[in-house]
Structures are given as C-alpha cells and as structure tokens.
C-alpha cells in the first residue's frame, strides 16, 4: 500500500520528521529561511494528500482546486486567516491548527514586549551600543511603571487569560473585551468586562490578542487610538491586520499615545524602512510570539499528528 504524500512548506528538523517517515511519503521545501514559491507550492499541493503549512502560505480557492487529492491542511499556528476555510470544507478538506501548545509561550512574549516597551529596554540597550551613556541623570530613559496599572485585553481567549494571570502577578487591574463574557476569568482573576471603548479609555496598557476576521480587521483605527489615554501603551501580538498602521503611526507621532510594542504587522516581513521601525517609542519584533524551541517543536508535532489522524481515517485532534 502506498504511503500518503505529505508536503511540508518549510524545512524542519529531521529528528522531528523521522518518526513520521514510516507512515508518510514526505516531500519538503528545503529552505528554512524562505517561504516556498507559489508556483512550487501549487505544483506540490497537486500531488499531496496532506499539507503542513505556515502563515506565509495562502491556501486559497486556486490551490484547493488544483489539489484534487488533498484531504487535510495542518496550519502551524493558532490563527488560520491564511486559509479559505469555507472553500476547504466545500472541497472536503479538513483544516487544523495548533491551539493550547503555544499559549504560555506566547503569553510570556506578550508580557515581555509590554515590559520592554514600558521600560524602554531596547532603546536603553541601543543607548549604550551607540556610545551615548556619558553620565547618569534622574530622568535618563525614564519609562512607565507596570505594577499597579490597568491592563486592557482585547480578546480574552486562552492567551488572553494567560496574559491576565501574569498581569495579576504584577498587581495590575484587569479589564477585557471579548465576544462573550468570561465568568471564570472574572472570578479567578478579578477581570472586569468592558465594552471596547470603555476598555480603551480606562486602560494604561492595551493588548490586542484578537483573531483576524472581517469584524476585527483594523479595529484599532484612528477612533480607537483617540479613545486611549495619552500615556497609554499599545501592544499587538495578534495579527497586523487588526491595526490601521497609519492611524497608529499618527497616534505615536502626535502624542495621542505614548508607545507601542508590535510583534505583528499588516504585511510581513517588514523592512527597516517601515515607518513604525524608525520611531524610538516603538519596539518591533519579527513575529516571534511562540518562538521557543520547545513550543515550536510541539507545534510541529501536533501538526504532524493531525495529518496522521486524518489520513488514517480518524478525527483531527485540533480541527478548526
């Protein structure tokens, strides 16, 4: 019996793949640092029974129409806005993602980014590298306190709750906005539900952890930033498309808000010439929310286990 063909869109460690070679005929794009070209992706998908992809790959109607044998797409991420899920379903293709395994790691990065932005850590490190530290002064690179302040979390899912737990450890007051109330979080974390505008107006730190949908696209727009405190710090670790980047740039340069920490952008990767990169009150990271070695390995193994389950005729472990 022939093994099902699985195409992996980025080079991953052989020790992760090896146990699955017994059940799959694995084909793989061999470059770790560059996405697979679209023409090659279409050609390989047309031969595949399963696809393990990243956010950089668009699994759209064109690809799904060409991939006649495709039965499952395993997306190595929690979000799946790179996949036309409805088109996949209409073609009988199961779509899976990787929730849970990256929750705590992403929450760590979220809070690290919040702290680095508030305390101007990157700017301070550059200050020394550039030879500017000649003497100490009382307000040299003075930032914002975190303890005792109010955090507003947009999107109180698994990661949102994990961020709230960290905030509670810093003695922060927690406000949140979500599609539905989270009574457990309210009871355990003393989180207070607010409508979106009220949350923006009452928070010292606003953290975006919402998925990218039609409703959340550019939800952080000119009006949203206008509703924030002038001392507010905005942190985005969800999707770049949830933010109107021009409105954010304007808010940062005209003093509407104090600073921003960004792990995601509307179009990735960004160049050093991106307007937000040049601002001293912005910390930019290259979409590394879940980037610990242990977590990325767990994400890969979950993706491969999802492929195996579906191709074995069983239910997916984490279907979308």
From TrEMBL:
Protein name as catalogued: 2-hydroxyacid dehydrogenase
Domain D-isomer specific 2-hydroxyacid dehydrogenase catalytic: 6-320
Family per record: Belongs to the D-isomer specific 2-hydroxyacid dehydrogenase family.
InterPro entries associated with the record: D-isomer_2-hydroxyacid_DH, D-isomer_2_OHA_DH_cat_dom, D-isomer_DH_NAD-bd, NAD(P)-bd_dom_sf
PANTHER family: 2-HYDROXYACID DEHYDROGENASE-RELATED, GLYOXYLATE_HYDROXYPYRUVATE REDUCTASE B
Entry keywords, A to Z: Oxidoreductase
Chain ranges of the D-isomer specific 2-hydroxyacid dehydrogenase NAD-binding domain: 111-289
Organism: Lentibacillus salinarum
EC number, UniProt record: 1.1.1.-
Single GO MF descriptor: oxidoreductase activity
SUPFAM superfamilies: Formate/glycerate dehydrogenase catalytic domain-like, NAD(P)-binding Rossmann-fold domains
Top-rank taxon: Bacteria
Residue stretches in coiled coil: none
